[in-house]
Amino acid sequence: MPGSSVLAFDLGGTDLKVARVSADGGVRGFSRLPSRAAQGESALFAAIAAAAAAAAAGGEARSGPAGFGSPGVIEPGTGIILDRTPHLSLPPEFPMRSRLELALGRRVVIDNDANCAALAEHRVGAARGARVSITVTVGTGVGCGIVVDGRVLRGAFGGAGEIGHMPLGSTGPACGCGVVGCVEPMASGSGLVARAQEAGLRVSNARDVFESDDPRAAAAIERMVDHLARMLGAATQLLNPDVLVIGGGVAQAGSRLLAPLEKALVRYTLASHRKGLKLVPAALGEQAGVIGAGLQAWQAQRPDTT
Ligand SMILES: [Zn+2]
């Protein structure tokens, strides 16, 4: 149906992004509002309803399903957020999909936000044309989505792709998730800043560290890159991707991150798996999540297509 679009949302702890997304990933009426997620369920759903009304008022949106990207592990069969996510102030085992369907008055196709971003990069972004792509978002934490032949790999209960919480023998600080040796505190942007501060540097974000000429900053970057490379190496050995996409705030460092990361990957990957493997920056920026959520809604209407 040329010209038509679905409503798509990308919910985060701070922001709620909304847009109308066409079947080819085109975006119209993109906007970003406060998600009010920290204020609890009713504030969050008021924000979602207001965003839906604003996006729908801006132009035609099909009456079919809306796409929704959310933090947390979303159980595919039920649309429940398993356990809970620290990014939303909601009760454990929250029935997110059915609550959204009630609030929006339409069917909702829901998935984890990193899965949505990964699908968008695979279909219309930096990994277009890939067979198997892994999109890793390096920011406060480490997010990841895996797409195989145009379909998100969700795992049995929706939790596939949590590569930030792999126990890679890190001797660094403990992660709040409880996994012993979790790599995220060493591989994330917030970890980079913490390690640089421990070394005595006055920095407040990852950009400060990358822009510093201090050798202590270079050492902190080298350690972060090494842990990122171990994480990506493990994922590469397991899934044999042809494209690794790096996004998130830390990826704005560009070649200052990607060049050493590519070099470090050689240490942690088999030569057979490096052959043809591309490491690329994300292409869709802050719109990746809504584009992927919208593409999932389209995909649900045409299950035979990718
Ligand atoms: Zn962890």
Can you lay out the helices and strands and say which pair or pack?
Blueprint: E1 5-11, E2 15-22, E3 27-34, H1 41-57, E4 66-70, H2 96-104, E5 108-112, H3 113-124, E6 132-138, E7 142-148, E8 151-152, H4 184-187, H5 189-198, H6 206-211, H7 215-239, E9 243-247, H8 255-268, H9 271-274, E10 278-281, H10 288-301
Parallel strand pairs: 1-4, 4-5, 6-9, 9-10
Antiparallel strand pairs: 1-2, 2-3, 6-7, 7-8
Helix pairs in contact: 3-10, 5-7, 7-8
The site of zinc ion has 6 residues, from loops.
Describe this structure as you would to a colleague.
This protein is an alpha/beta fold. The protein has two domains: about 5-115, 2-Layer Sandwich (Nucleotidyltransferase, domain 5), CATH 3.30.420.40; about 125-285, ATPase, nucleotide binding domain (Nucleotidyltransferase, domain 5, 2-Layer Sandwich). The chain has ten helices and ten strands. The chain has helices spanning about 40-55, 95-105, 115-125, 185, 190-200, 205-210, 215-240, 255-270, 270-275, 290-300, and strands at about 5-10, 15-20, 25-35, 65-70, 110, 130-140, 140-150, 150, 245, 280. It has a five-stranded mixed sheet with strand order 3-2-1-4-5, with helices on both faces. Strand 4, helix 2 and strand 5 form a beta-alpha-beta unit. Helix 3 crosses helix 10 (about 290-300), helix 5 runs antiparallel to helix 7 (about 215-240) and helix 7 (about 215-240) crosses helix 8. The two termini are about 15 Å apart. The model has no long low-confidence stretch (mean pLDDT about 95). Bound molecules: zinc ion. Zinc ion binds near residues 165, 177 and 182.
